[in-house]
């Protein structure tokens, strides 16, 4: 049986949040250790509990953490920042992607609306009002669809 997806947002219940933090932090430390051993990479982690004054370090020796931090500090600043990801940068990227999705959806919706207008009034003598603000877009979409139909017809002629 597979686990269901959970909504990634802060847990409202404090005791559930504490339990989740404890379990997930233990799992994270296990993954960090596995990554270090299996891939032979230097890794360090510092976790500070929001529920008490407890701090967790991996590796547990401060010398191991110091070694990784010194290697990091020895890198040029551009290399240090290359793979850093802060919440502001993350939120900007998410916002940019959502804006782009909205823009594409608006275009699809507008095109569907124009198709609907065309289909609704196709048999009427004057289906586009002369002062319609969308007349240029309707003409553009109609021309594009006409070209698509001509290409389909030509490809069918080539098959026959």
What does this structure look like?
It contains 5 helices and 2 strands. Strands 1-2 form a two-stranded antiparallel ribbon. It has 160 residues and is mainly alpha-helical. Helices cover 66% and strands 5% of the residues. The protein has helices spanning 14-39, 62-74, 77-82, 87-121, 135-159, and strands spanning 45-48, 55-58. The chain starts with 13 loop residues before the first helix and ends with a helix.
Q: Which range best describes the helical content: under 10%, 10-25%, 25-40%, 40-55%, 55-70% or over 70%?
A: 55-70%
Element pattern in H and E: HEEHHHH
Total count of strands: 2
As a percent range, the share of strand residues is: 5-15%
Strand count, sense and closure of the main sheet? 2 strands, antiparallel
Radius of gyration, in Å, reads: 29 Å
Total individual domains: 2
Low-confidence stretches: none
Oligomer: single chain
Protein name: MADS-box domain-containing protein
Organism: Lithospermum erythrorhizon
Keywords: DNA-binding, Nucleus, Transcription, Transcription regulation
Domain MADS-box: 1-61
Give a concise summary.
With 160 residues, the chain is mainly alpha-helical. It contains five helices and two strands.
Could you name the key traits of this structure?
160 residues; mainly alpha; SRF-like; elongated; transcription regulation; MADS-box domain-containing protein; RNA polymerase II cis-regulatory region sequence-specific DNA binding; TF_MADSbox
């Amino acid at each position: 049986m597979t686990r269901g997806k959970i909504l990634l947002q802060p847990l409202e219940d404090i005791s559930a949040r504490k339990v989740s933090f404890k379990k997930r932090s233990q799992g994270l430390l296990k993954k960090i250790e596995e990554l270090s051993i299996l891939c032979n990479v230097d890794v360090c982690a510092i976790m500070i509990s929001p529920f008490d004054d407890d701090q967790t370090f991996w590796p547990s020796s401060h010398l191991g953490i110091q070694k990784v931090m010194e290697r990091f500090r020895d890198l040029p600043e551009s290399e240090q920042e290359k793979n850093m990801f802060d919440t502001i940068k993350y939120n900007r990227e998410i916002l940019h992607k959502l804006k782009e999705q909205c823009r594409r959806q608006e275009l699809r919706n507008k095109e569907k609306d124009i198709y609907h207008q065309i289909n609704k009034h196709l048999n009427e003598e004057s289906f586009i009002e002369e002062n319609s603000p969308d007349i240029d877009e309707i003409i553009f979409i109609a021309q594009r669809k006409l070209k698509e139909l001509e290409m389909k017809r030509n490809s069918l002629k080539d098959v026959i």
